[in-house]
Fold:
Amino acid sequence: MTREVDPDSAVKMMESVGCTLLQLPSEQSERLLRGSQAGAEQDPARRQFLESFPFAIGMVEDGER
Structure:
C-alpha cells in the first residue's frame, strides 16, 4: 500500500526539521554532517535527497563539505 503525503504538509515538516537542525551547536551539526548515511543509501532518489538536504536548509554552502 502506497501512501502519499500532502505536499504542503511535507514542506512544513521539512522547514520545521531544518529550523531545528540550524539551531544545533556547531559541534553537533558538524557531527551530524560527518555521520550522514547518504553514501550507504541504495535508493538513488533517497541518496540525492540526503546529500542535498544540508544545502537546501542552509547548513552548508555550496563547495563546503
Observations:
- The first helix runs from residue 7 to 22.
- The chain has three helices and no strands.
- Residues 11 and 27 are 27 Å apart (CA to CA).
